[in-house]
Each structure stands twice: as C-alpha cells, then as structure tokens.
Amino acid sequence: MTVPSRLVDRSPQVPPQALIAGLVPPPLFGGVRFETYRPDPAEPTQAAALGALRGFAVSLQRPAPRGRWRRRRATGGAPRGVYLDGGFGVGKTHLLASLWHAAPGPKAYATFVELTHLAGALGFAAVVEALGGMRLLAIDEFELDDPGDTVLVSTLLARLAERGVALAATSNTLPDRLGEERFAAEDFLREIQGLAARFTAVRVDGPDYRHRGLPQAPAPLRDDEVRERAQATPGATLDSFDELTTHLARLHPSRYGALVDGVTAVHLTGVHTAVDQAAALRLVVFADRLYDREIPVVGSGAPFDRLFDADMLSGGYRKKYRRAISRLVALNRTGVGVG
C-alpha cells in the first residue's frame, strides 16, 4: 500500500512559454494521422472531408510568405481556413489533429476553451504575438454559448488571419435531440463575421448518436473502497470532492492540465451535484484535462451522471455539462473496471 498524494496540495506554476508549447493535440489524438482515419463507405462526406483536409495540408507546405507580403497574401486569394461541420462520433477531431500533424511548423492546436483561458492568463496582445507567427492554428470544439468568449476568439482569429495564419476549426453538437439546435456551419460563419470569407465549410456526416441521451454512470463506491483503490495504485491521487472544487477555484484554468500531469488515477470521496454554475464550469474544464490525458476517475457519493442538476443540463451551458458527464462517465468506467 502507498500513501496517495492529494491534488489540493499541488499548485503548479506554468510559465507563458510552457503554455504556448503545450498547444498540441492531447495524448488521445497524439498518434492519429490521415492514414489512420477510416471513412465510412456509406457516408461519402467522410471521404470527401479527408480529401479536403489532405489538400489543405498540402497548401500549407508552400513556403510561408514573409513581412508585408505575408500580410498582403492574408487579405486575398484562396480561403485560408477550413471548418469541419458535423455531429458526434464522425471523426472531426481525428481529422483536425491529423491536419495539425501533417502541417509544417510552427503550429498550434487548442480547444476553444483553452484559447480563452490562454488569453486570460497571458493577455490578448501577448497571445496575438505568440500565435501570430504560426503557420496553422487548429481549434477544436468551437463554442458559441458565451457571447463574450465568442467575440474574444473571433477578434483573436481576425488578428491572426491578418498575419497570414491559416485556421482550422471544428465544433461540437448538442447531444439531446436529432436535428434541433445543432451547431451548424451557418452559425459559425455568422459569429465570426468578417472572417467568414476565409473559411471553407466541410460537412462530415455519419450516424448521429445524440438521441441516445447521457450515458449512465457506474454505481459509486464506498469511501473506504475509494481509499483502498487509491492506496493500491501507484501515482494515484485521493481528495475529497469539496476540497478539490475549492482548490480549483484558486487556480487559473490554464493550470489544470499541469495539476494532473503525471497522475495515474484520480480518486474522489463525497462526490455531489455542483452547487453553482461557476463551480460547475470549473469541473467541466477539469474533466476535459482528465479526458485529454486518459486519467481514470473513481468516486464515492453521487454517480458522475448527477454532477450537474436539471437546470444546468437544460440551460445555456448544457453542451459543456453533457460533454463533461460523457467524459467523466467514460473515465469512471475505466477506473472501476466496467467494460
């Protein structure tokens, strides 16, 4: 038996250079390539999307323009952005990460949320300078549920496009009702306004799993069972849920990834429904960082599919909460050994 460490005892400091260097596909997509994407023969848009992304990658291989010519090229010519539009489980992130791997550097890959946190941690001007020399910026899970964040990222993309940075983006869709409230290409292009002409929208169709609803979480363990599992797992952490949520409030979300670096499994006692939206949104970001790193989660108290209440799951941030539940349940199933 080992004495597990506690996440609440960690307060990682992440220098700006490390934040920028960390803008790469998560480990889950570290090994994907165009060659590993398997289009469904029954869905011709998947093969077409693969071809479009391969072509976009080839266009990025041309020598990068410099100085004024780089800025002049950025204002005209062929579209320098691609947007993948489609539902869950059709391989949009696989394609986006494959594009990033195929593109020449310097390049960056981030989720929409990571970009907003980066701007909060470093400042808008510093982010423009840090990313302005990139050949490609790939953005996964573009979101429109916060008008302020949408304006922030749209303005950031405009500044980067002016500098000749090629852009690629995906979005997520709501998982509740088929054909309703789907994040569609027209929504994306409308919100980025002046940037719309720079993007080519690429549709990726496939089986739509949104009608399945949220996954059911495994039954929670007892507190003593959680502690025993943590003690028996080298590199695991053990925290009370309330102490962890308090600790997350003290850390900037850009540091959540560093918080769990090197952790083999997260164990939580006393899990319960989030008490307010601020705490709930921090848990969403924490869940994303765990999922990126494929870190199993084990808990006692409430099951992870009850982490957010009915109002949250029907409100403006419902897409975030549903994604977090889906990911935490998957990690929890791994943690307790449920297939």
UniProtKB/TrEMBL annotation:
Q: Provide the protein name.
A: Cell division protein ZapE
NCBIfam families per UniProt: ZapE
Annotated signal sequence range:
none
* Keyword Nucleotide-binding (UniProt): yes
Assigned keywords, A-Z:
ATP-binding, Cell cycle, Cell division, Nucleotide-binding
The organism's taxonomic lineage, starting at the top: Bacteria, Bacillati, Actinomycetota, Actinomycetes, Jatrophihabitantales
- A Pfam family that the UniProt record links to this protein: AFG1_ATPase
> What is the superkingdom listed in this entry's lineage?
Bacteria
One GO term under biological process is: cell division
What PANTHER family does this protein's entry cite?
AFG1-LIKE ATPASE, ATPASE N2B
